[in-house]
Amino acid sequence: MCRHVAYLGPPVALGDLLIAPPHALYRQSWAPRRQRNGTVNADGFGVGWYAEGDPVPARYRRAVPIWSDLGLTDLARVVRSGALLAAVRDATLPGADGEAAAAPFAADRWLFSHNGAVGGWPASLADVARALPAEELLSLPAQTDSALVWALLLHRLRTGDEIGQALADTVLDVAKAAPASRLNLLATDGEHIAATAWGDSLWFRAEPGHHVVVASEPYDDDPRWREVPDRTLVVATRADVSLTPLKEPLP
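Structure tokens predicted for Gamma-glutamyl-hercynylcysteine sulfoxide hydrolase (251 residues):
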């Protein structure tokens, strides 16, 4: 399992969201409060952010626990952004992919993270993977369940699906093939945040017209945080947040 967070709003220092709050993502790496599976998220971390005037995000990822990277504090103090996605990782299975397996995954203008696990991986998604072009399968950034879920989502995005629809359809396809999966997905293009609650906790905090945060769990005790019901799609902009129930796929 993992923990992740996405933000849209006025530019802030990365550390103001990821390190400074009392229950920030930094602390969630060793002391999450609402994580239902796993206890320590020490198998890597990453943050992706957008600079003003550039639609393609930058990323900083490491295969080490977030608390062991002493350079992150300086980076997070001086880098400011109005749109970001960050995650700490608890690996589903042991592997040698290292930094390549740490979210956020990125392509074009999109960032993506997966909080959960695909049941029966990898056999369960063999048929689903065959629907992807060979070039896309050969371009997987890591040999993990999250990387394949990202490839499925990216394929939909590049063929023109809107981010919310693409995320929902990806979850339903994977859940149909692997019903035991936990599929809390989080994605952004710098203007929208899309997320799914499917098997683990998901929360959001919004001040319409100003900012929105979507996260695995609240990073403070502000009463404005709202929990997202399980089996729900969230699509948010700086102006609005919408929640749409997701139906369980038929066997």
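The mean pLDDT is 95.
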